[in-house]
Amino acid sequence: MSVPNGFISLPSLSQGSDRDLSIESTLGELPLYNFLVKPICLGVDIARIFEKHPLLPGAILVEQGQFAGMISRRRLLEYLIRPHRLELFLHKPLHILYKYAHSEVLILPDSTPILTATQQALRRSPEFLAEPVVVQVGESEYRLLDVQDLNVVSWQIRGIEAQVRYERTQAQMIQSEKMASLGRLVDGVAHEILDPVGFIWGNLTYVSTYTENLIELLSTYETYLPQIPEEIAALKEDIEFDFVQQDLPRSISSIRAGAERLKKLVMSLQNFCHIDDVYPKPADLHACLDSIVLLLKSRVNSEIEIIRNYGHLPPVQCYAGQLNQVFMNILTNAIDALINQAVVQQFTQDFQGTLPPNIQEKPRIEITTEVCSHKASQTGISDSRWVSIRIADNGPGMSPEVQQQILESFSVEKRSAKETSLSVSYQIVTAKHGGKLRMRSRSVCRLGDSLSVCPEDYSRSGCPESGSPQGYATPSNSSREPKPGIGTEFEILLPLV
Fold first, then answer.
1. Which of 43, 50, 369, 381 is deepest in the core (most CB within 10 A)?
2. Does the predicted model carry a pTM greater than 0.70?
3. Which of 10-14, 192-196, 485-489 has the lowest mean pLDDT?
4. How many Cβ atoms from other residues are within 10 Å of residue 109's Cβ?
């Protein structure tokens, strides 16, 4: 950083970025003043420059190519208009005035967001609030930003942010209304489907009984009339009576199985589209899980195995419709993670005949439910019970970057910016049900009140709680490298009241 023309450089103003401002805009996108002076120049020369350029907020002092400070127009004029200060400072080197007019300098890199810079500028002492901000461009270049310009731009961005938030809220309201209308529509269609299915299901018993009676009647006829006319014998041969007699019960059984499957599917769809009441009601979580698995069966092909390890759960006071959405979101993410793995396994087995050692296991999703309790950290007495629903897959796991993105999506700021399925699930579990949502993948451990990312080899000895001895035991060798392909596990904890 050098002064090209002797002691003082010519003031200039950069153009800034030509793109529209946004919430993520930084100081480097704003027009910045460039005015470098050496401390040995006279105060009268700086005053003349300020007189020619009324918008120039100050001057950056440079000594031996290094940043030596900043003196603002306001501070310079304040000292020069005082009695006898013209004689003392106007025709003296600038460093003499700078010793007396030295003020707090706020230096920020050009990558600082504008809103963050505004907050830091407002935290300064009251006598320094009007001082310009020094913006560091690169490693050794410095520019000036008028604090009034910063405030104006900040208010513009806040207006944009408010407008974006309003539009997003409106879009969410419209989407919520659409989903509610769609849910009511699907619920009505499911109800209409259940009626004919009920007719089929109710009459299958009579059809089966009638068929058995008719076959028994024909058998009795053949017993007492062994010699049948040729026309009847020809007809029996044409219609393949012996085959019909054997296959008809199987056909009726197939119709019964199809009707039962259709009935379960429609009921699952009806439960998923159920609109919750104002107050929570007792619900069978196993039935909720089974209905979601049935709805996702079209995506779970033969390559993906689902294992259910259900414990004994009492009815849980909850909003069943919203919990169904949580189960749907987590299971959908697990299926997405396993589909690519299943394709790779099938491709490798078809072309190589064998699978690599790291993908020998068949892709699977394991659902485990149980009732657990945890101890209070002070007394060590079990004071509450929780229902634990763990959904784990043996997929490739998640990288630390992906885990960090998930953690950030749970915050209020990130969730308002972009809602994801997991952030919505987190909101439903924690805010709506007073529960906890925990995630474990690879060898990253981060415990919190509502979220944990724990190592895969932590031993479970009860319901986990941050800081509680009845949580996850510390591994014997915590310096080990992460193991790939250990999968991901989500745990939903709901309090029992």
1. 43
2. no
3. 485-489
4. 13
